[in-house]
Amino acid sequence: MLPPTSLEQIIPELRDAVGPVILISGVGLLLLTMTNRLGRAIDRARSLKNELSKLTGAERAATQAQVEIIYRRARIIRQAILCAVTSALLAAVLVVVLFSMAWLRCDVAWLAGIIFIVCLGSLCASLVAFIMDINLALHALKLELESPSAKK
Is the confidence at residue 93, as pLDDT, over 90? Predict the structure, then answer.
């Protein structure tokens, strides 16, 4: 089996690879957002942790609860990032598989289908974790607004 020898023979594969490449670009933007959220959560947790030594009683308990929520958020964001990176990697593998199938002139469409399904499943898991983070962030905000120090 000889590889494609002309541009006309490889154009259909280039066209087929555009979808996964666009997916990689979109996931990259999602990763940028998630890493920014992770950085902000970590900075906020460190800031609150420094305040803990100065607080007592109800204020300390409220701040500790916020720190625990932010730590949970950071773990969820990490999971979202891992799923998004997995999705991008699978999209890249899909492009390689599509070109390899064309190059070797073998038809294992089921493999490309499975890779694509797992890629999108991983992206969905990432987005669900992202929504969980947003919900926890709102919960932490509610605790902060209800804390004794916020009422002063």
Answer: yes
